[in-house]
Specification:
With about 210 residues, the protein is mostly helical. Helix content is about 65%, strand content about 5%. The chain has ten helices and two strands. The longest helix has 22 residues.
């Protein structure tokens, strides 16, 4: 059943390619091609980490300092290549991840969404409920979810964009458009919600 669903989806995708693409689709395709040429995210992450470590050693030897605007104190660059710096890196490697608040929710959401997408369940559900919907309806659904997803804490910017990309792709729209729409809606509605209780985070008093 899964293979049949996969073949059906591939046929739809091949048919969509034959249709003349709009200027926006071609622009998003160009962005996608450039993004695919970038290294794997984990490689970029490790590369940036190495650059930060090397720069910390260089700036520490140069005696670079900065002023903390909150209390006016002078902050010196901590050399991460020193003995104390290496000890700090090894002793804090776990807490750097465990201290990330949305980590647990993100792991569960990513595993669940990946399983649902790879098995064909997510695409089938999307096509069942929104397959015949107009484009603006799908966009409104994503924007509504993004604005109200702050109830999930800081995980909205990580969880919704890939799901929105899959949703847009399942209805024949460009996945990057869904990703950008979800990210913009979550960021714009970070402190907005249909629940009046969330207005407290913005310091708004309701009378």
């Amino acid at each position: 059943m899964t293979e049949k669903k996969g073949r059906s989806y591939e046929q739809k995708e091949n048919e969509a390619v034959k249709v003349k693409k709009s200027g926006l689709d071609r622009f998003l395709d160009a962005i996608e091609r450039m993004g695919n040429k970038l290294p794997d995210p984990i490689t970029m992450f490790l590369g940036l980490a190495v650059i930060v470590i090397v720069l910390s050693a260089v700036f520490s030897m140069l005696g670079v300092t900065a002023v903390n605007p909150s209390d006016g104190s002078t902050v010196q660059v901590f050399n991460l290549l020193s003995v104390a710096g290496i000890k700090y890196l090894w002793t804090n490697v776990i807490t750097n991840f465990s201290g990330f608040a949305p980590l647990g929710m993100v792991l569960v959401a990513v595993v669940g969404s990946s399983l649902a997408e790879k098995s064909g369940f997510l695409v089938a559900v999307m096509e069942k409920f929104l397959g015949g919907a107009k484009g603006w309806i799908v966009t409104c659904v994503v924007v509504f979810l993004g604005i109200n997803l702050n109830v999930a804490g800081d995980a909205g910017n990580i969880v919704l964009p890939p799901l929105a990309a899959v949703l847009f792709m399942s209805v024949g729209r460009h996945p990057l458009l869904g990703l950008y729409t979800a990210f913009a809606s979550v960021s714009a509605g970070f402190c907005a919600n249909i629940d009046p209780w969330t207005f407290r985070c913005a310091g708004i008093r309701l009378h």
